[in-house]
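Dear H.,

Thanks for agreeing to be a second pair of eyes. The structure we're designing against is below in token form, covering all 609 positions.
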């Protein structure tokens, strides 16, 4: 999405109700939550990727340093940071003007190589196909043929089955911005249906297995959809083949005064449209009019909502703050001289990010990644398709409490949120919900990982849209999961040294005991030369160093690591950190169950005689 003053004004008018001042003090709405260990009545739909594999981020012309991304791909710090925070998809622009002489110098082959590099690094790619040449030839036969040929060649050059999807256009209902100016919305909606048929057919002719998504319509597009969807169905029915049929329908679920995601689902389900079997894909969502913290809460809520609704993919906008008005949507930004710019969240900490600073939405992703990775999504405790949400009010489809269940062998995490923002036209909106569980959680984490909320004097937790979702951790074993770290020094042949003493230091962030653990002693005092430490599951990072305890101050070099048990163990890296730079292991963000990790250092040669 490119932004100009008109777009800002339009969106401000659309969301004015959502960003109204918080509601006046109200009596909390009391909600008794079900047992966290029950089977949720709304099971996940079959055939969908795990929730952690559905999250994307836009890297666009004005929302990333695109030249750096295209030049380096993996190795570009914002991309690598996003991957560490759980991003699995990248949205890239493919506008035909950039491939024309004098339009940007891109080539099909070069673009295909960029996509291949991303795919090879484990990233899936979401390509937006456009041609914003909105002149007198727009939608002429020549224009459409050029767009068809362009889309087909992009598909051929980026054909990686199951790893790349194609979105045909962006927000065509914004007439005069992403589409030609017109006073006839219905006619332009029908024109987009014609474009969609032709371009989708061209993509499927080039790559029959391609997943194609219709252009994401904005949250205020209900009237446009009433013209577009029936016309698209009519054109499909005229064809003898299904090449023009998209696999998903795009939607931009920005905050609004009512539940526009549910409304768009109803539009698709109408008989005159006949698309009830087709999923919605949130191809863009974000927040650039509220403070960053509020935007992160809104992003966390729509992420959880997309999982509840069984959507296959959600793409956030954007990697970096836009270079024009607002500058609030970015997940991170460059910051000269910053040595560790993603450290401002206790639970969402991402270590070693230099030259950039993370914003709350990046921490929101990291917290969700830690919750969902390694746990199985079990479904929603309340089924919005068949019941009202607990605490909801008639006529307000964003009110009430929603909850999802994520489970491991050790614990259950309940994600609880509300979409009930303060909205001017909706009386009483922006409510506080007072939650009680039949079982006390071990701990609770905020959506950006900056706090660990506690219950009030009556044993209840306060939930508000303005402060974001909460994650409640419940033990199945009666105790916190633990991560055992085994540390030893080894000789070149892999044997344990016959002599020598070491100092092993670990610095944990956050450390519940607020202390640095240290061991000094001989290997003979330990079984097989191992030093052990047990850590609670909610630590974010641990730094481990080993020195010779002979007064020399020699630092032993990291040798390698191995996972002993535990699929949700922390990631392990080696590097030089602190001042002066010191070789060490860094353990980051265990996601779930108990684990054991072995860290090996190089023993001095004289210890191995």
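And this is the sequence the design step returned. I haven't edited it by hand at all.
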């Amino acid at each position: 999405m490119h932004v100009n003053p008109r777009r800002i004004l339009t969106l401000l008018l659309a969301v004015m109700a959502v960003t109204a001042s918080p509601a006046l003090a109200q009596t909390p709405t009391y909600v008794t939550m079900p047992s966290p260990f029950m089977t949720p009545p709304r099971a996940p739909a079959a055939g969908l990727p795990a929730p952690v594999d559905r999250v994307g981020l836009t890297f666009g012309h004005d929302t990333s340093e695109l030249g750096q991304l295209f030049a380096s791909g993996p190795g570009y710090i914002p991309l690598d940071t996003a991957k560490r925070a759980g991003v699995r998809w990248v949205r890239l622009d493919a506008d035909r003007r950039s491939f024309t002489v004098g339009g940007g110098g891109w080539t099909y082959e070069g673009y295909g190589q960029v996509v291949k590099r991303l795919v090879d690094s484990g990233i899936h790619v979401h390509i937006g196909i456009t041609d914003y040449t909105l002149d007198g030839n727009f939608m002429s036969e020549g224009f459409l043929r050029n767009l068809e040929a362009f889309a087909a060649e992009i598909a051929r050059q980026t054909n990686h089955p199951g790893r790349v999807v194609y979105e045909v256009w962006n927000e065509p209902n914004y007439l005069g911005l992403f589409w030609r100016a017109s006073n006839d919305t219905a006619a332009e909606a029908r024109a987009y249906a014609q474009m969609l048929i032709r371009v989708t057919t061209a993509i499927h002719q080039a790559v029959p297995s391609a997943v194609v998504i219709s252009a994401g319509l904005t949250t205020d597009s209900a009237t446009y959809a009433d013209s577009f969807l029936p016309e698209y169905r009519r054109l499909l029915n005229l064809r003898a083949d299904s090449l023009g049929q998209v696999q998903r329908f795009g939607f931009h679920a920005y905050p609004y005064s009512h539940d526009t995601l549910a409304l768009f689902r109803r539009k698709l389900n109408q008989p005159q449209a006949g698309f009830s079997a087709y999923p919605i894909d949130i191809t863009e969502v974000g927040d650039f009019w509220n403070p960053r913290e509020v935007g992160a809460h809104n992003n966390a809520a729509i992420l959880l909502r997309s999982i509840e609704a069984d959507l296959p993919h959600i793409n956030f906008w954007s990697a970096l703050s836009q270079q024009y008005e607002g500058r609030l949507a970015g997940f991170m930004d460059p910051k000269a001289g910053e040595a560790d710019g993603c450290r401002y969240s206790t639970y969402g900490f991402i270590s070693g990010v230099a030259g950039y600073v993370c914003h709350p939405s990046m921490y929101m992703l990291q917290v969700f990644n830690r919750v969902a990775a390694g746990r199985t999504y079990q479904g929603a405790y309340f089924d919005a398709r068949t019941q009202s949400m607990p605490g909801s009010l008639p006529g307000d489809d964003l009110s009430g409490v929603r909850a999802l269940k994520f489970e491991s062998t050790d614990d259950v995490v309940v994600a609880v949120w509300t979409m009930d923002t303060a909205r001017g036209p909706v009386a009483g909106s922006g409510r506080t919900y007072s939650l009680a569980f039949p079982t006390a959680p071990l701990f609770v984490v905020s959506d950006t990982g900056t706090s660990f909320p506690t219950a009030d004097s009556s044993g209840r937790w306060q939930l508000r849209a303005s402060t974001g979702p909460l994650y409640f951790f419940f033990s199945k074993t009666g105790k916190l999961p633990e991560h055992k770290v085994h540390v030893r020094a080894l000789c070149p042949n892999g044997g344990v040294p016959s002599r020598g003493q070491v100092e092993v230091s670990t610095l944990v962030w956050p450390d519940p005991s607020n202390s640095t653990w240290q061991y000094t002693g001989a290997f003979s005092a330990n079984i097989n030369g191992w030093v052990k430490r047990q850590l609670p599951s909610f630590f974010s990072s641990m730094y481990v160093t080993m020195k010779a305890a002979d007064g020399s101050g020699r630092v032993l070099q990291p040798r390698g690591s191995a996972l002993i048990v535990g699929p949700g163990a922390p990631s392990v890296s080696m590097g030089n950190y602190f001042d002066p730079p010191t070789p060490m292991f860094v353990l980051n963000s265990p996601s779930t169950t108990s684990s054991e990790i072995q860290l090996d250092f190089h023993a001095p040669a004289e210890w191995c005689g």
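Two observations from my side: The domain at 55-80+87-335 is CATH 3.20.20.80 (TIM Barrel). Confidence is low (pLDDT under 50) at residues 1-24, 523-528.

Warmly,
E.
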